[in-house]
Amino acid sequence: MSRIKFSHDSKVLRFAVICLSAGSGCAALIYEIVWFQMLELVLGSSSVSLGILLGTFMGGMCLGSLLLPYAVSTRWHPLRVYAAIELTIGGLGIALVLGISEISSLYAASALQGFAGILQRGGYCAVLLMPPTILMGAALPCLARLVRATPDGMSWLGSLYASNVVGGIIGCVLAGFYLLRLYDMPTATYFAASVNGTVALVSATLAFATLYVAAGGDRTEKGGQIPRTQISRFWPVYLTIALSGMTALGAEVVWTRLLSLLIGPSVYTFSIILAVFLLGLGLGSAAAARRAQRIKDAAAALAACQFLLVVAIAWSAFMIAAVLPFWPIDPRLAPSPWVNYQIDVLRCVWAILPAAFLWGASFPFALAAASTGQEDAGWIVGAVYASNTMGAILGALGVSMVLIPWLGTHQVERLLIAISFCAGLAMFAALPRAAPQAVPANSSGETKSASRKAAIAVGALVVASFLIYSVPATPASLIAYGRELLKVLEFPRVLYLGEGVTSSIVVTEDREKIRRFNISGKIEASTRPEDLRQERMLGHLSALLHPHPRSVLVVGFGAGITAGSFVLYPGIQRIVICEIEPLVPQNVGPYFKQANYDVLHDPRVQIVYDDARHYILTTKEKFDIITSDPIHPWVKGAGNLYTREYFELAKKRLNPGGVITQWIPIYESTRATIKSELATFFKALPRGIIWANDRKGRTYDFVVSGYRDPTKIDLDEINERLSRPEYAQVLASLREVGFSSAIDLFGTYLAQYADVAPWLADVQINTDKNLRLQYIAGFDYNILYIYAAASEIRKFRWLAPNFFTGSDEARKALFKAVKTNQ
Fold first, then answer.
1. Are 210 and 281 part of one and the same domain?
2. Do 805 and 766 belong together in one domain?
3. Which residue, 73, 124, 144, 481, has fewest beta-carbon neighbours within 10 Å?
4. What is the pLDDT of residues 394-453, one digit of tens each?
5. Residue 535 and residue 499 share a domain
């Protein structure tokens, strides 16, 4: 095959390389989504774990962009190096997904607590994610060596960056709406690896057909020469693009949090927000790439982007807080979820696309501003890309883990506007130094130029100050009710509002003195009769089903009502509460002090601030009772607490005779969602029972209980236990929610697993590999009705289960109570 000499303006080759870059970006986003989802199962989904995951991922990309110019000689054909990079990324991706079980077992066996545990998680992330992410970061600087560091070349590199972002959009949508919704994480990984393989094959073929001439011709075999003058001459460019990355990722954290209140925090919402954000970056970088070769001063354009971001960030903040929540949209009226997704995309575009466009445009302008045409293009791209990524790491981690809990989203948005102004000012002030190719002006011209610059800077300062002052705060009603906001006719009195590391919370009280704890746009707990009844059922069923409970693990604090039910039992010696959001217990618990029996001040209680799954995976302690009241399964990340592997882990942490109870929501759930939850629970715990929280003829929730060992429920023994003086508070607590006796409580019996096994035979099981439930539930959570699952289950049940034992009188009373509830 004959070779053609490479020319920087070869349209065929440039188009082919742009396609390769898009494929690489597509695979990278699929990996990112899969790896984060997969490693959360091992390292936990707490703020610490997520911060370590994000920092390692982006840190690896930053390191890769810096290392390539030093480690790889410019004499090596970039397309061959690129092919090797892509092939290695695919191999590492497959190895990671195949070895995750062994990684999980190794981590669980050696897990440490406290600060040592944080360091350990960081070490695991470094070992697992650094190799592939370093290669991902090296990909763009590698392709950059195909061009000269000229304005035209830098413009084309902007297009290359844009194509990589476009590929990322495709990967984000593919992973979120197709590969993970219909298949599983291994399938998504194999697809991404096949894209890597295809890119590598095409790249190697192009390398064979293209003659490569290294820029400069005198590079060493160890790598490109370091243009040290670049660092001193163009440091304002690197500082500006770093601050731009910081504000971009910081704003994405804030806006993802606020938009998920408005749209609903499902996996699809996060995919939509990320895709729209990437769309803005891609459009902006593509437009700037075309513009960069026509303008004389790219540094001035970079400064202008930062000044315009002052307005764009304020626009987004105003839209999200004061406009979008009040659009007259009822998602429950849509005939299909796909209709809602169109509206969600429109709202995200309207709010965040302008700012994302400007952040995308900043990168090509920074490339052009940092180039004089004499350097290794790979070095320039690596330096600019690394600066941008380092800023992004600081922005994402600083905003999510420090600034939001400390200042709140309102003040963070103001801070982001101020940082964008400072970035623009730094670049604007350094324009003569950053653009040495400009013609020197005479003294009179210099004076006029200085005056003009001062006037522009003062004007920008005035605009920024006004916008910072005018940025509206997020309404408490949006944090409390999210997408249901317009249905609230009278917003109750706010008792507490706070924004934590993982969630925003509100405690309210209405005219009827009913208190509600709302988290991330939905009610998590309340003193409303049906809610209080369900929260107490979780506690009392668990404690009475076990003959001699001594230790309890409560997953999720909520308002502390379920955990508080256990403090009434004299035999219980230890209560561990696992809560992922540190803001909740100390700030929410006191407002429900009467309902939760002041559980926070009971000496038997220990609160562990960690992801429950991670705690169960790593703790060596065993319990008599594990009870869980997680958030709805359609909430992103909650699916981890509904998988077969999670229930099997919990089962291993039970003492002999131990019991597990779990809340199963009926509202905002479809038939497929409810059946998947039940089938998954019973897959791990086949000795299981379904209990129904009925109120005024309607079933609001299920409570499912599962047992480590074969069990019998001795009605006479439980009645005798409740008749003792030391159990007087327990009986009073039951009567407060409508149960006059243990018979009344067990009258909520609906069915045992053996009854409903045929009904659940064709159901998809939620596993760690597929996390199917969050996709099933998230697809249909905007529904108008409460599914009549209880009525359907009653058609299958047998009304004389043999695990109820006791006197004939007690058994007859129980069956009468069951029929009465029906």
1. no
2. yes
3. 73
4. 999 999 999 999 999 999 999 999 999 999 999 998 886 444 444 444 556 567 777 887
5. no
